[in-house]
Specification:
The complex is a heterodimer of chains A (111) and B (114).
Chain A (H helix, E strand, L loop, with lengths): L2 E3 L3 E5 L4 E8 L6 E6 L6 E6 L3 E5 L2 E6 L4 E6 L8 E7 L9 E2 L3 E6 L1
Parallel strand pairs in A: 2-11
Antiparallel strand pairs in A: 1-3, 3-8, 4-5, 4-9, 6-7, 7-8, 9-10, 9-11
Chain B lengths: L4 E3 L2 E4 L5 E6 L6 E7 L5 E8 L2 E5 L7 E4 L6 E5 L8 E8 L8 E2 L3 E5 L1
Parallel strand pairs in B: 2-11
Antiparallel strand pairs in B: 1-3, 3-8, 4-5, 4-9, 5-6, 7-8, 9-10, 9-11
The chains are: A mainly beta (111), B mainly beta (114).
Chain lengths: 111, 114
């Protein structure tokens, strides 16, 4: 079966750094995605990892270790608008496969 | 910037009725998806569609559901006989290529079954 785990909620301070972890156990692996979702809105793409290592994109970075079934999303210089849910999702095979999403981590940014 | 659009934004229907949710994917995209998100729960994959046929479907996508690309721009999800538990936000998504490309999500249709 598919299992993706991430913390339910995290709190961080404006200007700080936060790391959101995700572990996955899937029948196959063909890429890990991070999406941001504000309440009542659609998910928006943040990052994609298919090989081990770190991908950096401005204030956001994502790391993948396939052997450990582990990823994290790192957000730097936090802003109030970063308050949202962060969704970890795995594509488990090739083909036009849909993504399997975790339950999301609700990130609260405090002044 | 091109975007996925969905109509209607909110649909209210009675149990047992048929509903059709509409999506216009980004014009040069080839892969289309439907997801749903029940309030407070995770996003769940329903179906993927490529080259005018279903590529993959989840356990949720039973005989009550169907998808269609009736013309060169629209992509629809039909629920034949709605149930209360079908109440959710339904997201359409599309991607240009397959292996490394992100899926762009539309704004969603909130379906309420009474």
């Amino acid at each position: 079966g598919q299992n993706i785990d991430q913390p339910t909620e995290m709190t961080a301070t404006e200007g700080a750094i936060v790391q959101i972890n995700c572990t996955y156990q899937t029948s196959g692996f063909n890429g890990l995605f991070w999406y941001q979702q504000h309440a009542g809105e659609a998910p928006t793409f943040l990052s994609y990892n298919v090989l081990d290592g770190l991908e950096e994109k401005g204030r956001f970075s994502s790391f993948l270790s396939r052997s450990k079934g582990y990823s994290y999303l790192l957000l730097k210089e936090l802003q109030m608008k970063d308050s949202a849910s962060y969704l970890c999702a795995v594509r488990d095979r090739g083909g036009a496969d849909g993504l399997t999403f975790g339950k999301g981590t609700h990130l609260i940014i405090q002044p | 910037e091109p975007e996925v659009t969905q109509t209607p934004s909110h649909q209210v229907t009675q149990m047992g009725q048929e509903v059709i949710l509409r999506c216009v994917p980004i014009s040069n995209h080839l892969y289309f998806y439907w997801y749903r998100q029940i309030l407070g729960q995770k996003v769940e994959f329903l179906v993927s569609f490529y080259n005018n046929e279903i590529s993959e479907k989840s356990e949720i996508f039973d005989d009550q559901f169907s998808v269609e690309r009736p013309d060169g721009s629209n992509f629809t999800l039909k629920i034949r006989s709605t149930k209360l538990e079908d109440s959710a936000m339904y997201f359409c998504a599309s991607s240009e290529v397959l292996e490394v490309d992100e899926q762009y999500f539309g704004p969603g249709t909130r379906l309420t079954v009474t």
